[in-house]
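Hi U.,

Before I forget, here's the chain from the pilot set. I'm dumping it here mostly so it's searchable later in email.
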Amino acid sequence: MGGKRNAKLPAAQGRRLLHQLAEVDAPSVERFLQQLWLQEGLSEQTRQSYRTDLAALSAFLRSQNSSLLQCDSELLHRYLQQRLEAGYNHRSNARSLSTMRRYFRLAREMGWRDLDPSSTLESPRATRSLPQSLSEQDVERLFDAVETESAIGARDRAMLELMYASGLRVSELTSLPMAQLSTRQGVLRVIGKGNKERLVPMGEEAIARVELYLSQARAELLNGQISDTLFVTQRGEGLTRQAFWYRIKHYAKLAGLNSRLSPHTLRHAFATHLLNHGADLRSLQMLLGHSDLSTTQIYTFVARERLKSLHERHHPRG
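Structure:
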């Protein structure tokens, strides 16, 4: 959002916030993060986000002669209001409130506090942000831009096809082990966020492209090296998320598409196109690996807007 701070703090500022975590609050925050790790297997990056959010809140509370284990709902409301006035966007404030709620809910469950001061707080009203997607024609243009005669091209086309056919997260795609792929059965066994496992169908075109990659290109890239990862580089390592992002931008430019395309755009296209062709929301939730159906519901808005546009364009009284 123009003129407003991004939710992601600069690294140096994030480190300063960690040092601002009041001594009285530090033990409960670390116990909170440890408990989340035990229950959900959260990544270090996610735990760091929670730690940073709570450090910022702790610093504010210390300025008000309070702490995480002593504050009331009025102080939390004042903190959120201060963030709004400082220019933090709605998405950032919603994340901060979500962190508060998780911390204080656990604090009450663990007996660190008698009451949950965040239970009466309202979520900041977020502006709906629609995911960028591609039309089915644009997907074809993107894929056709890949020159598949080379080993790298065969790998990239297989990765693009698989991501679009299965709706994988980019981290799931780039780290996918050979052992979790079955082209004969046409399914992937994916370990997603929180170490949750799901089975995802691949689709005929993706199977054909992956088998083509496996038949020669992968061995050519490895050049005698050994790797358990499905998609590899010439160094025998798995492709990084950043490298795959660069590859998509390269092919988007060749295809004359928006250069802001990212791997996540293909995941959005997967979801949107499935809904457009009649998939139900619950099935889509399972395929995407969303733990909460509300995360998936953004796509109903995308599909609804498309239907509205089609009606206006083609209905005689639209």
